[in-house]
Specification:
Oligomer: single chain
Number of strands: 8
Distance between the termini: 117 Å
Helix content: 40-55%
Shape: elongated
Order of helices and strands: HHEEEHHEHEEHEEH
Number of helices: 7
Strand content: 15-25%
């Protein structure tokens, strides 16, 4: 029942609900699309990139996997892991980075190579010579990593399309093999002491969507609309509670004033009833006794006698 009560409250405020729906729809649209150009045009923020991975195993001429070694063993797995780390760091620097880009058919300025030291120490995502950042969708990113206990170099590539990503992964492995062969030939390293790079299968490529999708936009829009409706219900409930509190306070004041008047009327009625029945009478005001006059205590003999005024004869014509 409370749910239907909330629905009725929202129906009474349907104009505000419609405004909230428009705001949520606009927010979801701006998350999924960007507005650019004039006249304004919507462009999707979601895009598809190509990804590819390749792995190479750095081994010795006498394989560490099959050869148990002997007295003249020159290398072990730990030393090979260190050399694999060195090779991965070299692939991310010039001129190997530029050569990998040229072999894959892309501009060296768009290739971002992240070596193990870059990712672990400085966290940099921009190679020397690259003009694009890793987050730019136009950039091609080659991420090189080495496992801690195994001399395996993993090449993870992200490019604007799947074909470019596969070419970059294959070019990185091929250029590494060529680099080791050229250095060993220049230094005249015997074959028994050379490092051997063995690709672990061919490069695997695929496509991946990036950026906010429609599902995320719909979810955010629904969440915003629910929050908007909750705010409407909360504000309406607050206003209703405020009015009820004001009415309750007014009723209490009226009751107090009415009670006081009733008590006063009851007192007056009781007083009137008692006076008419002879039970209650106001106290009589005490009559004041007359003060004794000073002349009352004087005897007639004490009063002095005054001589009588002589009677003058009247003149005729004079009143």
């Amino acid at each position: 029942m409370q749910f239907f009560g909330h629905l009725r409250q929202l129906w009474r405020q349907r104009f505000l609900v419609a405004v909230g729906f428009g705001v949520a729809l606009l927010a979801g649209t701006l998350i999924t699309y960007s507005i650019s150009g004039f006249p304004p045009k919507l462009e999707s923020r979601q895009y598809v990139v190509g990804v590819a991975t390749a792995s190479v195993f750095v081994d010795s001429a006498s394989s560490q996997v099959a050869d148990l070694g002997g007295e003249a063993k020159l290398s072990d797995v730990a030393s090979l892991t260190v050399r694999a780390q060195l090779l991965a760091n070299l692939l991310g620097t010039s001129p190997l980075r530029e050569q990998i880009a040229q072999r894959a058919g892309i501009s060296p300025e768009t290739l971002v190579a992240i070596s193990p030291d870059d990712a672990a120490d400085t966290g940099t995502t921009v190679s020397v010579g690259a003009t694009l950042d890793e987050s730019d969708r136009r950039a091609s990113v080659v991420n090189l990593s080495v496992r801690e206990t195994v001399p395996i170099i993993t090449v993870a590539v992200r490019a604007p399309d799947r074909t470019t990503a596969a070419r970059l992964a294959s070019s990185t492995v091929t250029r590494l093999k060529q680099y080791l062969g050229s250095v060993a030939a220049v230094d005249r390293v015997p074959n028994s002491r050379r490092l051997v790079v063995k690709p672990l299968g061919s490069a695997h490529s695929a496509t991946e969507p990036r950026g906010p999708g429609r599902v995320l936009a719909v979810g955010i829009s629904v969440l915003l609309l629910l929050l908007w409706c909750g705010a409407i219900l909360a504000i309406e409930g607050f206003a209703r509670g405020w009015r009820q509190a004001a009415e309750l306070e007014s009723d209490q004041s009226s009751e107090r004033s009415t009670g006081s008047e009733q008590q006063l009327d009851a007192v007056i009625q009781r007083a009137s009833g008692n006076a008419s029945g002879g039970v209650f009478a106001l106290p009589e005001r005490p009559q004041s006794q007359p003060r004794p006059s000073a002349l009352a205590s004087v005897e007639p003999a004490d009063v002095p006698a005054f001589p009588e005024r002589p009677v003058l004869p009247r003149r005729h014509g004079v009143a």
